[in-house]
Amino acid sequence: MDELVRDFIQGRITFNRTTSEWEVEGESLDKVYPNANKEDLNLFVSQLKKKIKENITDEGITLIPRDVTIEGTVNTTDGKGTTHIIQVAGTLDLLGYD
Questions:
Q1: For residue 95, what are the β-bridge partners?
Q2: pTM for this entry
Q3: Are 74 and 86 in contact (CB under 8 A)?
Q4: Cα-based angle 19, 29, 35 (whole degrees, multiple of 5)
């Protein structure tokens, strides 16, 4: 489902008015994401479109769905109350900013 959400945000998933179904570059969702059936995938994408519009883009938040690499430090406190500064690096599945 991570890949489906990223594809949707990236604009790869579009609505086909002829079939009244969502597609990925002309392919039905169940062909591209075979772990769920077509009906459930179409329902999920319709809900995703509504929720992202209502809760994210209407609020002026921009989403980046891929290729975000981060690095920095995190302060964490252990069970004894000692604070540790830890170097971290990795990739984000999704980044939103305003």
A1: 64
A2: 0.72
A3: yes
A4: 145
pLDDT in tens, 77-96: 999 999 999 999 998 888 88
Residue 83 to residue 6: CA distance in whole angstroms: 35
> With the C-alpha atoms ordered 20, 24, 28, 34, is the resulting torsion angle positive or negative?
negative
- Name the residue type at position 21: E
pLDDT digits (tens, 9 = 90+) for 24-59: 999 999 999 999 999 999 999 999 998 887 788 788
User: CA nearest 16: which of 30, 3, 28, 31?
Assistant: 28
Query: What residue ranges do the domains of the chain occupy?
Result: 2-60, 63-97
- Helix or strand (DSSP H, E) at 17: none
Q: How far apart are CA 39 and CA 28, in angstroms?
A: 11
Strand 62-64 and strand 95-97: pairing? antiparallel
